[in-house]
Amino acid sequence: MRITSKGQVTIPADIRERAGLLPHTEVAFAFDGKVVSIVRAKAGKKAGRGARFVAHLRGRGDVAMSTEDIMALTRETE
Questions:
Q1: How far apart are the first and last CA of the chain?
Q2: Residue ranges of the domains in the chain?
Q3: pLDDT score recorded for residue 47
Q4: N or C: less crowded end of the chain, CB within 10 Å?
Q5: How much is the mean pLDDT over the chain?
Q6: What angle do CA 31, 34, 36 make, to 5 degrees?
Q7: Does the pLDDT of residue 6 top 90, yes or no?
Q8: pTM for this prediction
């Protein structure tokens, strides 16, 4: 294995699979003076796309309806 000029290296597929490192997994590096370790980063540092979208929309509604009114709109009427 060789590090590229950009400092990149490919983690072999079997190691990625055994470590559970899926695409887009956040990782962290640790160095103890001799050994470099790569570990899954702690979750919760960055909100997911859905959470960011909900936060963006929160408080933007302008129609005052009760839950029952909203549910009535979604039910079939005959």
A1: 68
A2: 13-74
A3: 72
A4: C
A5: 86
A6: 40
A7: yes
A8: 0.47
